[in-house]
Amino acid sequence: MDKVKRNYEIYIIVDGNFDDATIEGITTKYENFMKKNGTEILNIDRIGRRRLAYPIRKKVNGFYTCFEVIAPSDVVGKLEKNFRIDENILRHLAIHMSATDLKEKQDYLKKKALTLARLEAERASEENKTAAAAPEAAVKAEQ
After folding, report:
1. pLDDT one-digit tens code per residue, 115-124
2. Do 104 and 125 lie in a common domain?
3. Which among 63, 69, 117, 124 has a CA at the least distance from the CA of 96?
């Protein structure tokens, strides 16, 4: 039977008190698990350490990671079971991304990139104006 693969975003929060090598080891463990079970990993976004909104298991910091994958639904179920068993994973979330969701996300990221580029260009032009005005002000101050 051919398994239907779907797009997912899988988020995990690892205990933020671990050192970077331990967190990387946990991330690699689940990355290898996904690859072994026929999952295509599109992107791994290591978001980083953040303060949690509320304590989870008496922890206040967590390291957030997002996996963007194309996977069969049974693999996602196995993965969630492993997340529940693993004491190092504070929280997990698997989101099925429909075609509409993917298009909206791509549009949002494009708009965000354009906005950031425009702001960067405006900032650079302001710096150029300031740099050009500085020598003229120094000459006027000397007179």
Report:
1. 999 999 888 8
2. yes
3. 69
